[in-house]
Design a protein that fits this description.
Largest sheet: 7 strands, mixed
Strand order of the largest sheet: 3-2-1-6-9-10-11
CATH class: Alpha Beta
CATH architecture: 3-Layer(aba) Sandwich
Radius of gyration: 16 Å
CATH topology: Rossmann fold
Structural class: alpha/beta
Helix content: 25-40%
Number of strands: 11
Length: about 200
C-alpha cells in the first residue's frame, strides 16, 4: 500500500470524523434524497447498502427509502470461510445484528440465506475518497474489489451496478487505480450525483 494513499486515507477519514452532529444529519438527509432520485435506484429491486462506520456518511435514510419503496435491502456479511469476500443478507424490521471482527454490525442469518453480489441489482458502497473517473479509495481491505472482481471481465452484462456513497468533500483530484480495483459507475454525495 503506497504511503500517498495511506496519507490521503488518514486525512479524509479525519475530516469526516470532525463533522458536527448537525452537519452529519443534514448530509445524510441530502444523500438519501439524491440516491432516491437516481435512475439506477429507481429501476433496481434488489439493492445492497451498508451501515456507516468510522465517520462514513449515514446511510440509514437510504435504507429506509429502499424499504418504503418495497425494494429488498441487503447488507454485506463477511465470508464465513475465506474471510476475504462479501456476501449479502436481506434485512427486515425484525433482523438481528451482531458485530463482525471489525466491530461493524452484520445481519444474523443462516448461510443458505446469503446471496452473492451477482444476484444484486445495485450495490451502494462506502469509500474514503473518489475521483472524476470512477476510481475509489476504500479502507484498504479489498473486500468489495474481491467480491466484485468478476465485473472487470464482463463486456456486456454489468449486474450489479455499483455506486459509491460519500460526502462531497471526499472527491480528490486523481487516484491511481491498482489493477484489481473495480471502478464505480457513479458516486452519490450530499451535494450531487456524479455518473461516469
Amino acid at each position: 500500500m503506497s504511503t500517498e494513499k495511506t496519507d490521503l486515507r488518514r486525512k479524509l477519514r479525519a475530516r469526516r470524523n470532525d463533522l458536527s452532529a448537525e452537519a452529519r444529519r443534514l448530509a445524510a438527509h441530502r444523500l438519501a434524497l439524491n440516491v432516491a432520485g437516481t435512475r439506477l435506484f429507481l429501476t433496481s429491486r434488489r439493492i445492497a447498502c451498508y451501515l456507516p462506520n468510522d465517520g462514513e456518511i449515514d446511510t440509514r435514510g437510504v435504507i429506509e427509502r429502499i424499504s418504503r419503496l418495497h425494494k429488498t435491502c441487503y447488507l454485506p456479511v463477511l465470508s464465513r470461510l475465506a474471510h476475504d469476500r462479501l456476501w449479502f443478507a436481506a434485512i427486515g424490521t425484525d433482523t438481528e445484528f451482531t458485530p463482525n471482527r471489525f466491530g461493524i454490525p452484520e445481519p444474523v442469518v443462516k448461510a443458505r440465506e446469503l446471496v452473492r453480489a451477482q444476484e444484486i441489482d445495485l450495490i451502494l458502497m462506502p469509500l474514503v475518497g473518489f475521483d472524476d473517473r470512477g476510481n475509489r479509495l476504500g479502507m484498504g481491505g479489498g473486500f468489495y474489489d474481491r467480491s466484485l472482481e468478476f465485473l472487470r471481465h464482463r463486456r456486456r452484462w454489468h449486474k450489479p451496478r455499483v455506486l459509491g456513497l460519500a460526502y462531497d468533500f471526499q472527491q480528490v483530484e486523481r487516484l491511481a487505480p491498482d489493477f484489481w480495483d473495480v471502478p464505480l459507475q457513479g458516486v452519490v454525495t450530499d451535494r450531487t450525483v456524479y455518473l461516469y
